[in-house]
Amino acid sequence: MGLFSFIKDAGAKLFGGKTSAEEAAEKAAEAAAEHAEAVAAEKAKAEASIVETIGDLELHVEDLSVSLEGDTAIITGKAHDQATKEKVVLVVGNTQGIAMVDDRMEVEHKEPEAQFHTVAKGDTLGKIAKHYYGNAMKYPVIFEANKPMLKDPNLIYPGQVLRIPSLDK
């Protein structure tokens, strides 16, 4: 008769073993599960790091929670005042990898909302103060409104978002 050629994994399973296609599918499923676990662990680590940074800056929000969904951060909790709420939004939004912040926080003591300003190349706090307040010498108001995120009024960078409070306070 001679030698005949067959497709090894296409026949009936008479010996109870797995075909190589089944083994490959199992290995792929295991690898996908391990990858999903690693991604979830990395996400949890990033969320915890953001919450820790907010705590380190002494921005107190009751029941603070930060959840990352892709490049969007969802923030919940109860801030004491509007300034704290806005500072938390800025800390999260000025974090690398975050493109959007979904602010779902509540505020215990309501106040007027501040404006936000995205720093452009060549901006200084004085230049920003001149734009919003008509007086460059009002830059300390902006600096104070962005503490503790800003440590030095000369250290701002393009793309950074700052709080610009109204002068009505």
From TrEMBL:
Segments forming domain BON: 36-109
Subcellular localization: Cytoplasm
Domain LysM: 115-164
Signal peptide extent: none
Keywords: Cytoplasm
GO cellular component: cytoplasm
UniProt-listed Pfam families: LysM
SUPFAM superfamilies for the chain: LysM domain (SSF54106)
InterPro entries: Bact_Kbp (IPR052196), BON_dom (IPR007055), LysM (IPR018392), LysM_dom_sf (IPR036779)
Protein name per Swiss-Prot or TrEMBL: Potassium binding protein Kbp
Origin species: Kordia algicida OT-1
